[in-house]
Design brief:
This protein is α+β, with helices and mostly antiparallel strands. 20% of the residues lie in helices and 25% in strands. The protein has helices spanning 20-26, 30-43, 109-112; strands at 2-3, 10-11, 54-57, 60-64, 83-87, 95-98, 101-106, 119-121. The strands form three sheets. Strands 3-4-7 form a three-stranded antiparallel β-sheet, covered by helices on one side. Strands 6-5-8 form a three-stranded antiparallel β-sheet, with no helix packed on it. The radius of gyration is 16 Å and the shape is elongated. It starts with a strand and ends with a strand.
Length: 125
Amino acid sequence: MFQCKLCPNKGTNRQIRGVGARMAAYRVCSSCDFWLMCLGYAMLGDHDPDGRRALRIGGIHYLTWTDEQGFPPEIGYVGNGEHRYFLLNDPTGTVHVTRRLWLMGTIPEAFRDRMPDNAAFAPTT
């Protein structure tokens, strides 16, 4: 056990979702390790080569999934309804639609300045 260098929690090198060695190397707890991964999406343009897009709306982090990827993990899955959103930095205001949205959680205060909102839900028509 060790003190997480980013928050008051304790960290461990025990394998949690396969990342015990990484947590120990960076001296972070599992929660901070998860949010550092989410911060990585922000640093890489909020999308990945598989077509997923990271959305931060109202301080909450989401990840879209494409039809080809199947369903996101069961925990946090928002449902199969239509979710409409637009990107805050898109001057055209294009509305995007996803049917598969994964709620990753409320961004901790310690990460919010580095992970500001990048999207908003669009009203239904």
